[in-house]
């Protein structure tokens, strides 16, 4: 493709040299430059891509897009733009044929619930005759095509290539998790959204955004910039959770029609006659298109909110009620989201990705409503991430469980013991008993009746901690392994090691003879 054609995606630029040069590929990583590539010199938080222009030219780059004209190369064309990331997103979309301009694209942003909501919408779209590709935390996938997810939302060059590949595989729609990082870093620029969904905003990623206001402003980009009517998509819409404190704020800022959804508020999309049990959810969905009863195998109030988000997004896209009902009822589970690991001892073990205070509270509220004999919660907090949520999660886990097992998550370059101490600081004020591992081992070995005292234990090794939880569990208990969910690795230092909570639980069952 010629450089001039790619530049047609931009509103303002300054071209120096021959615009007729052929471009074979796009990248912002100088290590991936091949002859004929276009290299985007981006200013990063740590590294400035302008430093690698010479390396890109030496590797055969055909042209450079940059912000600082003082770093311009000699001997090849170059383009100066005001914002390299916006330019990269739009040019990447043009390079790959603007795949999201021709097919419906639903984007979901919020702290919690994005992944489950994407799976629900995927099921609804399929019921409506629109087999959809899903781009999310776990993978980018459609039928047999599965692209491993490096981030919730990858760089725009990778993202647009994935859209093209998924469309070529037969996808008739796209459902996409849109992270705050992706919006802030302009990775979704070049995407043509039909519907934007806002699920909620609770504390997370403050290691990056610093303040909740900055976190909110990143989320708002989806509704203030990407949902303006265009010639390609003149009828765009937002579906917004009016139960969330920030829902009305997002609704007021949206540049398109809004469909509100909620459990507690009399929103456009809501529910009546709700029943929440261990077997799932039954309710009547009330929408501007009419009402319809449904049942779901998902558990809990927070999943009811996810169902409403999916239904509201489907209404915004103009899908029929029957397809919404069918999709909700066909959907069973999401990897690592309240995922059962079966055993033969009469207790329930669930693996869930809950890694924020709000998500953990939602899961534990659901489990308490099921009235188990005891709840044993195993969790930790990731290293090199927001330390402020650690005592919050400690307080929530310990106050809402009979036994909290504080362990390691992905410590990364932090000391796991230090992270656990910060979690412990949120538990100590509760006045709960701190058990030793030896005390709990003795109880498990003697098969004593459940301890009278509620409390917590600190055990850094996650593998050993999971085995302790399984040894302690008895008939009627619920064991929750929280924080890692679908992840099949643990990051210690800078090394990623294979580790899967589900596999470890099965091994623990085998050791116990279950």
Could you give a quick summary of the protein structure above?
The chain has 18 helices and 25 strands. It is of the alpha/beta class and 514 residues long. The protein has three domains: 93 residues, 3-Layer(aba) Sandwich (Udp-n-acetylmuramoylalanyl-d-glutamate--2,6- Diaminopimelate Ligase, Chain: A, domain 1), CATH 3.40.1390; 232 residues, 3-Layer(aba) Sandwich (UDP-N-acetylmuramoyl-L-alanine:D-glutamate ligase); 174 residues, Protein-Tyrosine Phosphatase, Chain A.
What structural class should be given to the helix and strand makeup?
alpha/beta
CATH topology (level 3) name of the largest domain: UDP-N-acetylmuramoyl-L-alanine:D-glutamate ligase
Number of domains: 3
Mean pLDDT across all amino acids: 92
How much helicity do the residues have? 25-40%
- Uncertain segments are none
Instruction: Give the DSSP E fraction (strand runs of 2 or more residues).
Output: 15-25%
Strand tally is 25
Q: What strand line-up does the widest sheet have? A: 9-8-7-10-6-11-12-13
- How many individual helices? 18
CATH class categorisation of the largest domain = Alpha Beta
CATH architecture of the largest domain: 3-Layer(aba) Sandwich
What is the end-to-end distance?
60 Å
| Rg (CA only) | 25 Å
Shape annotation: globular
CATH superfamily of the largest domain: Mur-like, catalytic domain
How would a crystallographer describe the biggest sheet?
Answer: 8 strands, mixed
